[in-house]
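Long-time lurker. I teach an intro course on protein structure, and each term I like to show students one example going from raw sequence to a predicted 3D structure in token notation. This year I'd like something fresh instead of my usual example. Would anyone be willing to generate the tokens for the chain below so I can use it in lecture? Attribution to the forum is fine with me.
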Amino acid sequence: MRVVRERCAWTRTIVHRDLVPYLVEESAEVIDAVEDGTRADLREELGDLLWQVLFHAEIAAGDPDDPFDIDDVARGLTEKMVRRHPHVFGDAVASTPEEVLVHWNAAKAAEKRERTSVLDGVSDHMPALALAQKLVGKAAQVDVPAPAHRLADPATEAELGDALLTLVQLARTRGWDAERALRERLRALRTEVRAAEASSVRPAPR
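-- Reply from a regular --
Happy to contribute to a lecture. Here you go:
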């Protein structure tokens, strides 16, 4: 990566923002390989995704004000994983996946003490359905209920897929934008969550 950055005329011009479309594309191709590819496909696509990480780190290494390199990235990741696995690297005990999550969430909360909302750290750049699932979970943490609707309740994940596709087809026939409709509803849900958080903050007694 260092040699390519130094000697490739195109690569020398690239900044972090330029790589975003490639990161999205390579991530999608890893998903394709996992869900419908061969082992060789997965190996190749993981390499392409790794190249994006190396590329970003090499760009960052040249930053004049706040440089870091791939070793710093790996070191930070190692330290984080050790903190979040006290049952592996420390004396904590976790014999079930649920107990593991307790340790993970406690460590994460300690790391992110500056966060003031359950919504902090949730990226709006996630695909709409993935974002919806994430935000519904966050809303539940502050007792904001999921919206109710008259739509039938699917019995299986396959039926859920059919129901979602039916809604997309309905949107298409009526000239609606399904993606926009969901994102606009999610913006409203974010507002509801922040309102619930604000209402739960009470002034300290005097």
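Some talking points for your students: The mean pLDDT is 89. The CA atoms of residues 1 and 96 lie 41 Å apart.
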